[in-house]
Specification:
The chain has about 425 residues and is mostly helical. It has one domain (about 55-425). It has helices at about 5-15, 20-35, 40-55, 60-75, 75-90, 95-110, 115-120, 120-130, 135-145, 155-165, 170-175, 175-200, 210-235, 240-255, 265-295, 300-310, 315-330, 335-350, 355-370, 380-385, 390-415, 415-425. The mean pLDDT is about 80.
Length: about 425
């Protein structure tokens, strides 16, 4: 490994410690390496601009963001909330079940854990408080269920993973479906147990005709994700083209079918999407440049060689990766882990002959569990603020949920078929 690489590494750590934006930190770290090593800054500019803006896949990211913003502006969340309540019915702890189910449904329209927790989380926590649920529990289940979004397709995180790693975008997106549903299933099991123990209130039993009415009303919204996935996996279009079709469909149902989206709101959704997309693309540009420096320094090769000297067993390697990613997820946001850590792991992943699509799910689930796990647990910070309840109490409530997700993570890690069955079936 080039010893000069310690210069950008220290620069990166210092800047992040000073709370500098991760994109700026990576750019300045890259620049410090080039200045010390005498490298050509022009090459980095080429890596940042050409490699990023010639990637057709990256265009899918702003399209997914725009689709989500249109659905949110069109008040689709309220329709899906009513549909989820109708599906759960009169079960004890019904609103807790609704919280889990709605996160799975809403995942297809956001792909963001933070968006889920801060968006529909406000509706869910308010409803649970009105029904007499403990505030810490309401905040905790909302934080835990928000982890589903970036795993279930369409996931922005999985698209970016595919962009960085070179894995199949369609394969990564499809691989997240079964693990995400299992995550929801594990949380529902916990909800069933805790609801009986604490005697949480029952839900509402809807008459059949009312259930049918609510379901019919929700079908256009539910079809958004279906249209996106079917168009991609039948080969009709690429992920980027599917994002464009889904975005157009979102506009049609929000403006024409539900009639909740005005031209003014559409313009605001466009502006909001542009700002969010610019931030993500800047991160990708910075990641491209930093990855180039990592390649020049030989750090990834050094890490791979070290790990292979420690163990030649890929299952032991996966255990080490899980521990590292989980710890990082507890103290860091997903973005720096994805943009900084992933490029360092790629050489080792290939050396151990690990399927990239399978690893995409391991990586994503790990970082998501970390987002609701103490001591950082950004999702718990968000939901505790919404619920106006002490963070310590939320952490206490969320730990059993994290344990359930960790058990599932172990299964996902060592049973690749959980992630690979669907993409192997549909893309073979």
């Amino acid at each position: 490994m080039d010893p000069i690489f310690f210069v950008p590494l220290i620069t990166l750590i210092v800047l992040m410690a000073l709370s500098a934006p991760i994109s700026i930190s990576m750019m300045l770290a890259t620049l410090s390496y080039l200045l010390v090593s005498g490298g050509d800054i022009g090459i980095i500019c080429h890596k940042m601009m050409y490699n990023t803006y010639t990637s057709y896949v990256i265009i899918a990211v702003p399209l997914f963001i725009f689709m989500a913003n249109v659905m949110n502006a069109g008040q689709v969340t309220d329709i899906l909330f009513d549909f989820s309540k109708a599906c759960i019915g009169k079960r004890k702890g019904a609103l807790a079940y609704v919280n889990v189910l709605l996160s799975l449904i809403f995942a297809g329209m956001s792909g963001s854990a933070v968006a889920d927790a801060s968006g529909i989380g406000t509706i869910e926590i308010a409803a649970m408080k009105r029904d007499g649920y403990d505030e810490p529990f309401s905040a905790a289940i909302t934080a835990a269920t928000a982890t589903v979004g970036p795993v279930f397709p369409p996931s922005i995180n999985l698209v970016i993973f595919a962009t960085i790693s070179g894995a199949s975008v369609g394969g990564c997106l499809l691989a997240g479906a079964v693990p995400a549903m299992l995550m929801c299933g594990s949380l529902m099991v916990y909800v069933a147990l805790i609801s009986r123990r604490r005697n949480y209130p029952e839900g509402t039993s809807y008459p059949f005709h009312e259930f049918v009415r609510i379901t019919i009303s929700a079908i256009p919204a539910l079809m958004t994700t279906v249209i996106l996935l079917v168009s991609i996996y039948t080969g009709i279009c690429t992920a980027t083209e599917g994002g464009a079709i889904a975005s157009l469909y979102a506009i049609i149902i929000a403006m024409i079918i539900y009639k909740n989206l005005t031209f003014k709101q559409l313009w605001e959704a466009i502006k909001s999407s542009a700002i969010q997309s610019a931030s993500i693309v800047l991160l990708i540009c910075a990641a491209q440049a930093f990855a180039y420096v990592i390649a020049l320094s030989g750090l990834a090769d050094t890490i791979a060689a070290f790990l292979l000297s420690v163990t030649s067993n890929k299952y032991v390697f996966l255990a080490i990766v899980n521990v590292v990613l989980l710890i990082l997820g507890m103290i860091m946001d997903t973005s720096p882990i994805l943009y900084i850590v992933l490029p360092l792991m790629l050489t080792a992943i290939k050396a151990y002959d690990i399927n990239l699509i399978h690893f995409a799910i391991i990586f994503t689930v790990n970082t998501m569990v970390g987002m609701c796990t103490p001591p950082y647990g950004i999702l718990c910070f968000i939901t505790s603020n919404i619920a106006k309840t002490p963070l310590k109490s939320v952490f206490k409530e969320v730990l059993p949920m994290c344990l359930a997700l960790l058990i599932l993570l172990i299964l996902i890690t060592y049973v690749p078929a959980i992630s690979l069955w669907l993409p192997n079936t549909m893309l073979m």
